[in-house]
Amino acid sequence: MDSNLKCPVCGCEHVYPDGALWxxxxxxxxxxxxxxxxxxxxASAEIRDANGNVLADGDSVTVIKDLKxxxxxxxxxxxxxxxxxxxxxxxxxxxxACKIPGIGAMNLKSEFVRKA
Length: 116
Hints:
Number of helices: 1
Distance between the termini: 42 Å
Radius of gyration: 18 Å
Protein name: Alkylphosphonate utilization protein
Largest sheet: 3 strands, antiparallel
CATH architecture of the largest domain: Roll
CATH topology of the largest domain: SH3 type barrels
CATH superfamily of the largest domain: SH3 Domains
Organism: Gluconobacter oxydans (Gluconobacter suboxydans)
Structural class: mainly beta
Family: Belongs to the YjdM family.
Low-confidence stretches: none
Strand order of the largest sheet: 1-2-3
Number of strands: 11
InterPro entries: YjdM, YjdM_C, YjdM_N
């Protein structure tokens, strides 16, 4: 079984094969992973910033609004410049891994940054 396969509708990780299709026990969605991958193509591989610019590894970005850090009283201020980002799938929509000066390593959502 493919351990990275998730339901495209609800994101459930507990999917199972049923013949040629895969089933989701939570939402009862059936799909063929080969067809889903062909339909999505390269469009899903692009990560775009708040202005619609395509981001790449090593780019510099600027945070566009104050972001509270979960579990801390610290805040990433709007206008903070972050250098040398890495694109990743951090989960929960966080697709940028970076080090923020004065705060440390963290993940950001691309919708809250713009390319510098």
